[in-house]
Design goal:
Strand content: 15-25%
Distance between the termini: 50 Å
Number of domains: 3
Number of strands: 8
Largest sheet: 5 strands, antiparallel
Structural class: alpha+beta
CATH superfamily of the largest domain: Release factor
CATH architecture of the largest domain: Up-down Bundle
Shape: globular
Strand order of the largest sheet: 2-3-1-5-4
CATH topology of the largest domain: Methane Monooxygenase Hydroxylase, Chain G, domain 1
């Protein structure tokens, strides 16, 4: 059974979150942004209109989520009072408290995603590391984990490139994940993931360590301008593998994009390689490969700016 102190803490944190989120200001902003959608010729520019509607929906979702939280907290307080009068059971009070607490934790976490790119969709790429079949199986396990995570959170997923392993698992996969704050929630997955287990692929039953790398970048849409130098792009075409379709392994629908990226700070050149085999139409695969390229370039610019800002902040600390 929850205590009065727990109820007070829940109420205090909810009230504090109201101030942190500046709900009153968001209500004003929603009204102002909605007025813009009523302007004559608003839909003449579909891309700009889509971006504007996204702003309105984003602001409104903050308000709706907070109102839902406030209602849940009020229900807990009411149930707590009813319990004193023997009108509800301990289990009912605890159940209401758990719902409110989870909603509070979720909204507090989302409030921490304050970077502009946190609200964007994302591209998640998994590459198997050294270790052959064992690492490829580990990469496959990670892929299933992220797909299930996305499904539980109501995200849409699309696999734009997949290369199966030699015996089991996968060599690499690129997944596009669409949903609210997808990048913000998944960006911490960047890095090398390790698995230590008794390998089912080792006849001697030895413990083996497998590695797989995960790269997460924001997925840009047409409303975000990203500079791409066409002279640095080259294309390769190949036959797309997979099940189904009369053109599979007969027509070169798969595309491989190579982009010679030059770091603005160091002047060093690096090749960005993107493969896309999602569609049976070469043109669609080209378009999606370009979208993934723009996403990678956008992410590199973000990281470059953050590094520059961190350098400035470090300089400030030295002065102080």
């Amino acid at each position: 059974m929850i205590t009065s102190d727990q109820l007070k803490d829940l109420t205090d944190r909810t009230e504090a979150l109201y101030r942190y989120l500046d709900i009153e200001q968001k209500k004003v902003e929603v009204e102002e942004e909605q007025l813009r959608t009523q302007a004559p010729g608003f839909w003449d520019d579909p891309k700009a209109a889509e971006a504007q509607m996204k702003i309105v929906k984003g602001l409104q979702k903050w308000i709706d989520n907070y109102n839902n939280l406030k209602n849940l907290v009020d229900e807990v307080a009411l149930a707590f009072d009813f319990y004193k009068s023997d009108m509800v059971s301990e289990a009912e009070v605890d159940e209401d408290y758990e719902k409110a607490y989870q909603a509070l934790e979720s909204l507090e976490l989302r409030n921490m995603l304050r970077e502009d790119e946190d609200s964007m969709d994302c591209v998640l790429k998994i590459n198997s590391g050294a270790g052959g079949t064992e690492s490829q199986d580990w990469a496959s396990m990670l892929m299933r984990m992220y797909l299930r995570y996305a499904e539980r959170h109501g995200y849409k997923t699309r696999i734009s490139n997949l290369q199966d392993g030699d015996e089991a698992g996968i060599k690499t996969v690129t997944i596009e994940i669409e949903g609210d704050d997808a990048y913000g929630y998944l960006k911490s997955e960047n890095g090398v993931h390790r698995l230590v287990r008794v390998s089912p692929f080792n006849a001697q039953g030895k413990r083996m360590t497998s590695f797989a790398s995960v790269f997460v970048t924001p997925l840009v849409d047409d409303t975000i301008e990203v500079a791409v130098d066409p002279s640095k792009i080259s294309w390769d075409l190949f036959r797309s593998g997979g099940a189904g379709g009369q053109n599979v392994n007969k027509v070169e629908t798969g595309v491989r994009l190579r982009y010679q990226y030059t770091d603005p700070d160091t002047g060093e050149t690096e090749e960005i390689l993107i493969e896309n085999t999602e569609s049976r139409k070469q043109l669609e695969n080209r378009e999606n490969a370009m979208r993934l390229l723009r996403s990678q370039l956008y992410d590199r610019e973000l990281q470059r700016r953050k590094a520059a800002q961190a350098k400035i902040e470090a300089g400030k600390k030295k002065i102080e």
